[in-house]
Amino acid sequence: MGKEAKRTELGQFLKARRAELTPTDASLPTDGAHRRVPGLRREEVAQLASISVQYYTRLEQGRLQASAPVLAALADVLRLDDDQQTYLLELTGKEAHRRRQPKAQEVRPPTRRLLDALGAPAIVLGRRMDILAWNPLAAALLTDFSQLPDKQRNYARLVFSDSEMRQRYANWEEVAPDCVAFLRMEAARHPDDPRLSELVGELSIKNPHFRQWWAAHNVAAQTTGVKTLRHPLVGELTLDWATLSVATDPDQQLVVWTAAPGTPSHDGLAFLASWVTTHPPATADNAPPTGTPGGTRSRTQPNPLLNHGADPAPPLP
After folding, report:
1. pLDDT digits over 63-94, tens only?
2. Is the pLDDT at 191 greater than 90, yes or no?
């Protein structure tokens, strides 16, 4: 496709997307008058994108090549999904321009089914290490995620701020700096993510361990490793963990914990799995909504899966 053909296609593409939106979709007032064309008017799109009507008109007519900032603004105004944004950039030959507000991540049904089918503890981590989904065995192994508010369902935040999770890790002094290194890598991938900046700022203020390790600028990718957990029902478990990328979203990672066959940890996981069949914790699909009774964890009621006798993490030297 030549340059002129691409500009023509760009104009038709923008016009088609404009026709799909209503003033209500764009939070614009409606005067109740009949519209001669479906969707938004050109002047409304131009106003929302902070460009002139003449500029936008020439874009739709295939007479102008838009700049990257203008394309990013139009992508937001027209509510383009990831595939549509990629197509837009392909037509204009521009490099990807990140959204100012990343979309909320969703775990698709095939990934959820895979999660439930696994005979091992597993969770799905999203951007900034948000915990997007989990299976019952992961909830039994780590903590009942369904009893946490949405904002608290973040792996790094739990490691540094939740005493139950902190007690669970026998090698917390190894796990915690790894979380910081993973977040450093996330910050490089998503430098404009306001929620990631908020998380780093919060943990830096509240936790001196996090503040010291963040200042060290160590980075690491989430690939594989070993964690030692102290579990109140099955004792100490030494588990291998590995991550698998989710094909439908490169910012989602499936994290799975396993143990070598014939080891006490393998037997412990098997016992925990049998316990879960009679005491199933909630999954992401049946978790109570936050803000309702049962939607947040009660710190005054005992949890049968807590190791109340575990020692706290050691202080920094």
Report:
1. 888 888 888 889 889 988 877 888 888 888 76
2. no
Collapsing DSSP to helix, strand or coil, 67 comes out as coil
Q: Single out the residue of 156, 118, 154 nearest to residue 138, CA to CA.
A: 118
* Residues β-bridged to residue 239: 227
Query: What are the C-alpha distances in Å from 192 to residues 95, 96, 156, 242, 294?
Result: 16, 13, 19, 28, 34
Q: Determine the Cα–Cα distance for residues 122 and 242; give it in Å rounded to an integer.
A: 10
Closest C-alpha among 172, 125, 133, 152 to residue 297: 152
- For the chain, give the mean pLDDT: 83
Contact 190, 132 (CB under 8 A): no
Q: Distance between CA 183 and CA 93 in Å, rounded? A: 31
Between residues 5 and 289, the one the model is more confident about? 5
CA distance 123 to 137: 10
E-assigned strand segments in the chain = 122-125, 131-134, 224-231, 235-246, 249-258
